[in-house]
Design goal:
Length: 422
């Protein structure tokens, strides 16, 4: 146990150092360039944080905004571009109009962009915010890093296909405040639908990668499951208060859960740095969404084979931290009781966390988050499947069983990623 605690502390310090470097870069950008003011740069810097530009345009170990990060999509890999001010390999030769066209319309000076760059959401960003964002982007130091962004297989590598995709799935409607809503809710809608582009990850996609009508109702993403953000109590945010949402986005934990996977990076790089007013606006917007009812399955009986085996394994493997009844420790170790993330129709995130383990979120409000160790080396696929099936059908939860084959597929995908990384 002491070794695990030391390993957790070292990981936290290392990642905290990397985050500090990134945040320091964002917080101490260069002076305004010709045509921009220092006030514009400061506002633009905040907008870049809200848009989480750093996360996608920075490769592990790379220079900020110099690109090179591989984004896995159902159609293949797209590598994020260099958006520093380098004139040869970045966007240093662009004009503000070209920048605006890329960010809001998905068209760079020489190519159509893929919606992995969320221009479908950024279309709602106002002219004033685009101008401020451009003023900041222009201050980013030049980094020479030529990136091959399009590694998609045929026919998806034909960018002209985006003309048809945009006609079918790209809503260019600018953001318009709703007069029937408060200024706070409208501000939250502007952030969520635009800069924070929450729907890009949390809305189910169709076969062509376009958004369906199931807005914010959760979807699979890079081997994880981006959870349901709708107002239902079984799989969504129906049981969360506005304060719960604010606390989660600021600290990475709250009384219900702790962030992991891509969402942990979003909180560390973006939402923890937003103002209290903007976090409260985001929470107000989500709580203003219509109530949604979902069909709740009947939990598996305690006599079920997987339930019996999973209950036994849970006590041995999990109860030391999560407690025998799954209550966890508030704001530190997530409760498993009546947990919407546990009830998700897709168990990918749960399988990932058990196989990989997860560091605790590193935020100013929660600098020493608790980590969960990896169990992939220790438990067989059927053991993990049984434990997760037990958790998903006890403690007030009800969700489909997890099969050993589900765990095996996730394990194979993780092993393949590790081969690429090393």
């Amino acid at each position: 146990m002491a070794r695990n605690l030391l390993r957790t502390a070292l990981r936290t310090c290392m990642r905290g150092g990397l985050l500090l470097s990134a945040v320091t870069f964002l917080a101490h950008g260069a002076k305004a360039q010709d045509g921009g003011t220092d006030a514009q740069v400061a506002r633009g810097r905040y907008l870049a944080i809200a848009g989480d530009c750093l996360a996608c345009h920075t490769a592990p170990g790379g220079k900020p905004f110099a690109g090179g990060l591989d984004l896995k999509t159902p159609f293949g890999i797209i590598t994020a571009s260099n958006i520093t001010s380098d004139r040869e390999t970045g966007i240093g030769s662009w004009t503000q109009q070209q920048f605006e066209r890329a960010v809001r319309h998905g068209r760079s000076p020489d190519r159509y962009l893929y919606p992995a760059m969320p221009y479908t959401a950024y279309a709602k960003v106002t002219d004033a915010d685009i101008a401020d964002l451009w003023a900041y982007i222009r201050t980013i130091p030049a980094v020479s890093n030529r990136v091959v962004t399009n590694r998609l297989p045929f026919p998806y590598n034909i960018r002209m296909l985006m003309i048809g995709w945009n006609m079918l799935f790209f809503d260019r409607t600018p953001f318009t405040p709703d007069a029937s809503r408060s200024a706070q809710v409208n501000r939250g809608a502007y952030l969520v639908e635009g800069l924070e582009h929450c729907g890009t990850c949390h809305t189910t996609k169709n076969a062509f990668g376009g958004d369906t009508r199931a807005t914010y109702q959760g979807t699979s993403l890079q081997g994880w499951y981006a959870p349901d953000l709708s107002n239902n109590t079984h799989t969504g945010l129906g049981g969360w208060s506005a304060d719960d949402i604010v606390t989660y986005l600021r600290a990475g934990t709250n009384r219900h859960t702790a962030a992991s996977g891509p969402m942990m990076e979003t909180i560390e790089n973006s939402t923890q740095h937003l103002t209290d007013a903007d976090l409260q606006a985001i929470a107000a917007y989500f709580k203003s969404l219509p109530q949604r009812t979902v069909a709740v399955p009947a939990p598996l009986p305690a006599s079920n084979r997987q339930m019996v085996a999973g209950a036994r394994e849970f006590i041995v493997q999990c109860s030391a931290c999560h407690v025998s009844n799954g209550a966890g420790i508030a704001n530190m170790i997530p409760t498993l009781q009546n947990n919407p993330a546990v009830n998700a129709p897709n168990p990918d995130s749960l399988i990932n966390i058990v196989l990989r383990g997860t560091d605790g979120p590193v935020t100013a409000a929660n600098p020493t988050g608790a980590a969960m160790p990896s169990f992939g080396w220790k438990l067989h696929d059927d053991q993990i499947a049984n434990i997760l099936t037990y958790i998903r059908n006890s403690m007030g939860n009800a969700a489909p069983a997890v099969l050993a084959g589900d765990v095996a597929r996730a394990r194979k995908a993780i092993d393949a990623q590790q081969v690429v990384w090393h």
